[in-house]
Amino acid sequence: MPSVAATHNVPVHTPGGHYDIHIGSGLLDDPAVWQGLPRARHAVIVSNPVIAAYHGAALLRALAPHYRQITSLHLPDGEAHKDWPALNLIFEHLLAHGCDRKTVLFALGGGVVGDMTGFAAATYMRGVPFVQVPTTLLAQVDSSVGGKTAINHARGKNMIGAFYQPARVLCDLATLATLPPRELAAGLAEVIKYGPIADDAFFGWIEREMPALLARDPAALAHAVRRCCEIKAAVVGEDEREGGLRAILNFGHTFGHAIEAGLGYGQWLHGEAVGCGMVLGAALSVELGLIDAAYAARIEAVVGAAGLPTRAPSMPLAQWFDWMRVDKKAEDGEIRFIVIEAPGRAGLRPAPDSLVERVIERLSTRPGVTTDSTTDARPLGQ
């Protein structure tokens, strides 16, 4: 059983709810952080078979003193199952067990489990409380915080969802020990993101500490998770529903979502696509005359050092633009990108198609991306 270390609390204040992010090692075994949970007769743990095998019993022990009835549901694993059929599994479970409006949902897992549990909580009986228990680095530093919940659609990523804040977020750093190396790297993409968009000193720290992060050094991971949560809490507190400032948190995501959808959900992990998307976004920022090539090169170098792809997959340009035009930041069919305006500062801007094409062609896995507009732009397997 992991020892309980010092816990850091990061408060989140939004119109949709006030809650704390608890960060520490051994939180699943720390009775103190489980006090004051939403009161109910019934709690439901939503997870997947892989995560539940590692951490399900510990969460069950933590919740047992607080709820008379606890049931568990395991969703299919992976981004490919972030869809209506898997979401309906949650509703079926809630209805079959007679869950009422006070039932509390606990999301134990990564971003897919967290997003789907949150969306189910937002819509079941028009809203029930839920708690995030993220077990991946990506979820701890990004998706579990801020109340974005959604499922994917064949025509676009995260296109169906709701803003719905959790009652609490518990980031047990000890759960990161079970992450496969590929998942750890994917989470580092979202860690890297926060530097160029909001804190250039933190970006320098990430560059220096990347070996320690990859080695899962406890102190390095604790600092990274805490600083990322502090930045996201501040941004979400100012702009809960992404009317302006919050969009900067999507640096790399317009390109990244196009990669995920174009290849077929699950072929690249979300963090892999975002890491590559940041390289493209930095190059676009250079093309727009906002930053110099040296800063873009630093972003590319640290993405590569994390073990993430720095070259985009080969897809027809028409396919890239079809996917990017359904991005949630697009307006009236105009694609808008998060760009780096200066080290540690980002903004939302349109970009001429010609510059976007130049960046994609230069940073794709093969020179000369096809411009065949007749190519089927649906995701693979659709």
Mean pLDDT: 92
Number of helices: 12
Strand-pairing-aware structural class:
alpha/beta
The main β sheet shows up as: 7 strands, mixed
Count of DSSP strands: 11
Q: What is the CA-CA span between the terminal residues? A: 44 Å
- Ranges where pLDDT stays below 50 over 5 or more residues in a row are 367-382
Overall 3D shape = globular
Instruction: Please tell me how large the radius of gyration is.
Output: 20 Å
Oligomer: single chain
CATH domain class of the largest domain: Alpha Beta
What is the number of independent domains? 2
CATH architecture of the largest domain: 3-Layer(aba) Sandwich
Task: Write the element-wise H/E pattern from the N-terminal end onward.
Answer: EEEHEHEHEHEEEHHHHHHHEEH
The neighbouring-strand order within the major sheet is: 1-2-9-6-5-3-4
* Relative strand content: 15-25%
Q: Which bin fits the share of residues in helices? A: 40-55%
- CATH fold-level assignment of the largest domain: Rossmann fold
